[in-house]
Amino acid sequence: MQSSARTETRSPVLQAFRTVRNHTEALSAALTPEDQTIQSMADASPAKWHRAHTTWFFERFVLAPNLPGYVGYDDDFNFLFNSYYESVGSRYPRGTRGLVTRPGADEVGRYRAHVDRGMATLLADLETAEQVADLLTLGLHHEQQHQELLLTDMLHGFAQNPLAWRGEGMAVLPGWRPPTGAPGPTRFLERAGGLVGIGHNGGGFGFDNEFPRHHQVLQPHALATRLVRNRDWLAFMEDGGYRAAAHWMSDGIALSRQEGWEAPLHWRPDGAGGWLCVSLGGLSPVDPEQPVRHVSWYEADAFARWSGARLPTEAELEASQADLPEFHGHVWQWTNSAYLAYPGFRPPPGAVGEYNGKFMINQMVLRGSSLATPPSHARASYRNFFQPDKRWQMTGLRLARDL
Fold it and tell me: DSSP assignment of 286-326, as one string?
């Protein structure tokens, strides 16, 4: 009989599981229990909730149905940590997750350890591991989504603290530095258009909304080789861009005035005519050469119009992503494409079919990935999506032009 250690070494799915799970814990290691309970707005969730919900996903969908004799950690967690899966029961309201102080962060850690031990037993059997591989892979990419949300939600929470105005040790990730962008001037890459294949090509993992692969016709267009910079955005602000209704959609300018938008989210006046920005590394002066982050679709669309350009479509970006510097690892790029199903889309059967399809309304697609996205989670066909007013994610833009 093989030893457990040797069996685990032979199980690549178990190794992948542990790698992703350990990364979640590494991201939250610098957070205090108090940090992990905060919910700064209804769109955000506490860090401990992200840790618990991703654990619930594995327990509910992978572990309990496939490991004979498995005993759940706490039946009440099925209610507390279900996100939006109607078919598996009731759930606690999203907007008040920060009111749940118990279980605490330490208890959530014990919950994760309990489920991880069960998963190790399940996945150590190579035949069983093969049988659940697809669902396990979905769970791992689901957890990577929440790793990014954990960072952006905590950043929003830290940004509400008045100490951030004074820059006193409010880093979410100590030692964090933004990546270096592509140097030089922005050029426009011309494309002739024509018939292009769009969607996941079937190699490796993809969410259901990336399928089926199909063809779209593109008109001649040009795409900016670089993302829009803070320097560009400052020029927009100085030219009265936030007040010029001619550049804005009606809903956007109304919301901008209602909310008092005058700069990207997390920007703060420095008191001397300049701007500071709260980032994962704390409070620092706005770097003019960094891609602008934390702008809504409404702002991105207004900026594009002000620039005499437009936002690209998601098909234009996907078709040219290999030739576009800064496509991954900086900001999610707003597109001019509504989040809709591809022709022939069918959600998978069962609870996992609720994953994406039911959200295909009133949202806009973003492409690429951000500096908070785990690198192994990014791919050309990835379709992120948010309502056009959302700003707390690391969202920016690239310009496009018609030819």
Answer: --TTSBP-S--HHHHHHHHHHTT-BPPPHHHHHHHGGG-TT
Q: Are strands 332-338 and 395-396 parallel, antiparallel or unpaired?
A: parallel
Q: Are residues 153 and 192 in the same domain?
A: no
Co-location of 138 and 203 in the same domain: no
**379 and 256 in a common domain:** yes
CATH of the domain at 369: 3.90.1580.10
Q: What is the CA radius of gyration of the chain?
A: 22
Q: What is the pLDDT of residues 332-376, one digit of tens each?
A: 999 999 999 999 999 888 778 777 888 999 999 999 999 999 999
User: Residue 189 is inside which H or E element, if any?
Assistant: strand 188-191
Structure tokens at 67: 């490991």
Q: What residue type is assigned to position 180 of the chain?
A: T
Q: Work out the pLDDT band at 276, boundaries 50, 70, 90.
A: very high
Question: How far is the C-alpha of 74 from the C-alpha of 54, rounded, in Å?
Answer: 15
Asked if 155 and 192 sit in the same domain, the reply is: no
Residues written for the chain: 403
The residue among 135, 62, 157 whose CA lies nearest residue 392 is: 157
> For 209-226, what is each residue's pLDDT tens digit?
999 999 999 999 999 999
Is 308 among the domain residues?
Answer: yes
- Residue pair 212/342 in contact by the 8 Å Cβ criterion: yes
Copy the structure tokens of residue 270. 């420095």
Number of domains in the chain: 2
DSSP-derived letter for residue 334 is E
Peptide bond into 212 cis (omega under 30): yes
On whether residue 176 sits in a domain, the answer given is no
- Copy the structure tokens of residue 383: 């379709």
Q: What is the DSSP letter of 59?
A: I
Residue (of 68, 64, 204) closest to 134 by Cα position:
204
- Residue 396, domain member (yes or no): yes
What are the φ and ψ backbone dihedral angles of 190, each rounded to 5 degrees? -85, 140
Distance CA 12, CA 107 (A): 29
